[in-house]
# Entry
Amino acid sequence: MTPDMRVKIGSLELANPVGLASGTFGYGSEYEELVDIDTLGALFTKAVTLAPRSGNATPRIVETPSGMLNSIGLANPGVDAFIADKLPALRAMRCAVFVNVAGATEEEYLEVVERLETAGGIDGYEINVSCPNVRHGGLAFGTDPAQVERLTRSLRDRTRCPLVVKLTPNVTDIATIAKAAETGGADAVSCVNTLVGMVIDVRRRRPALAMGTGGLSGPAIRPVGVACCFKASRAVRIPVIGIGGITCADDALQYLLAGAIAVQVGTGTFVDPRCAHMVLSGIELWMQEQGIAKVGDIAGLLEV
Amino acid sequence: MKQFDAEILENRAVADSWRELVLSWDKAAPEPLPGQFLTLRVSQFSDPLLRRPFAFSGFQRAVGAEPARASVVYQVRGGATRLLFQLAPGSRVDTLAPLGSCFPQPVPGETAVLAGGGIGLGPLLFLADTLSAADELPTEGPPPLFVFGVRGAALLPAIALPPGTALCTDDGSSGFHGTVVDYLARNAPPPPKGGRLHLYGCGPGPMLAALAALAADRGWAASLSAEQWMACGVGACMGCALPRADGKGYLRACTDGPVFEAADIDWSGRS
# Structure
C-alpha cells in the first residue's frame, strides 16, 4: 500500500512533507538540471528583503566538524527584482513555494509581503526572524516573544496565505517563541535556523569568517533541532516543520517522531543534490515497513 | 552539469604532497573546458561534510573502447584530500561536473601567456593542451608562453610541462630565482604587432592580486581563476562570493567564475 504522504500547513496541502530549506536552494533554478523539484513537498526560497542586499564581506563560509558556518548576510536581489525575475518560474513549479521574507524593521517585513501579495501566485510565506548574520532585524526579532507575536499579527492582517515563522535555536526557551508565533496567528513554525558559531584561524589569529561569527548548520546541529522541535510541538497546536542537519530518511524521521509534521533539507543538498528525494523515498519505505498509513500519524508514535 | 559516480582510473603521486587523479567521464555529462571544475564527495559520512572543488587539469575524449577521462591535480593538505588520497583505482566517487566558467580563447592578435603558481598549475595545463591542439588557432605569431612557479625544486611535479616552460622557484633552487610575477615583470614578451598579450593565471591569492596589477599596468588582457571556499558549487548558497572591483557587491566563484576578467574582481583581499 502506498502511504499517504500529504500534510497540511494552514489551508495549504503539500503533496509530501519534504521541503528544501531557505538559503540552500536559491530560487529553484540553480539545481533544476540535477533534480526534479516538482516531486517534493515545498521549496522555501532564499530570503527576500525590500531592497537588494549584496551580502556580507568574504570569506562567508567555513567547514566545521560535521557542519558548516555561513555568514552570507541575506544576499538577494530585493523584492521587486524577485517578483520580476524569479517569481514567474517559481509560480510554474508544481511543489508549494514559500517565499522566505526577511527585514531589518517590522515595516520592511510588511512592505515585502504586501508587494508579494500584490504580485500574487505565492503559496505561502516563511517569516525569517532568526537570521544570525545581519545587524538589524533577524535574531533581534526572533529572540523576543512580544516582537514575534506583534510582527506575526501584523503580517496575518495582510495575507490569507499560510504563514510559517522560522525560529532560532539561540534562545533559552523556544517553546515561548513558538507560542508567541501561534498567538500572533502563524499557521506553522519552522525550527531551527542556524546556531551562532565561530571558528578562529589560529595561525592568522583572526576569525575564519570576515564577519567574525556565522550560523552553524549541518549534521552537527541535528540533536539541537530535534530537541527544539520536540519542545515546540508540545507547546503549540499549529504544525511544526523540522530543520537542522537532515541528510537521510532516518534523520528526518527523528524530527517527525519528535513532533514535526514536515521537514526541510538544507545543508544536506550541498553535500548531495539528491538528498531531499532520498529522504522522501526513505520515509515512504520506513512507513511501509512499519505499517503506517499516513505520514501525519508519525508524530504520535514517539514513546517517551 | 551532471552528477555521476566516476570510477577512479589513477590516483598517483606527482610531487611531495601533490597527486594527479584521473576519473572516468560519464557519457551524458558535457565535456569540461579549461578553467571549469568538478566537485567530489570524498566521504560517505558527515566529516568532512562538504563536497570539494577541483579544477580540471586535462580531459581526453573516448578512444575506441577506452572511456573518456578527466583529470585533476590536487594537494594533500587537509582531511578531505587525505581521504581522496586513499581512494584506490577501481573505486568510485560521487562527482558533480562540469561547473563554472572557462578560460576564454585568445582572440586574433593576442599572444597567450599562461602563468601557474603552485597547485594552480592544473587548469593551465589543460588550457595549454587545448591551445596546442587547436590547429585552427586564431592567433598568429608567437606560441603561448607557459610560466610555472613553485617554492623550491623539491616541489616540482612529475608532470609533463609544455615545451619551453619558464620555470620559477622562490628559493632559486631551479630555473628563474623568483616568483612567476617577478618573471613576467622582467621577461614578458613584447605584444604582437597591433595586438596584445592575454594573461591566463591561476595560483595563490597574492599571486592573482599581483598578476591583476601587472596586467592592468601593462595593458594586457587577463583572465584569472580564483579559489574560494564553496558549499554548493552551483550558485545557490552565495558562500563563495568575491568582491567586485567596482564596489557593487559580489560575484560567485562557482557560477560567475571561477575564471574572471582580472579587472572585474577586487583582488586586494586575497590572502
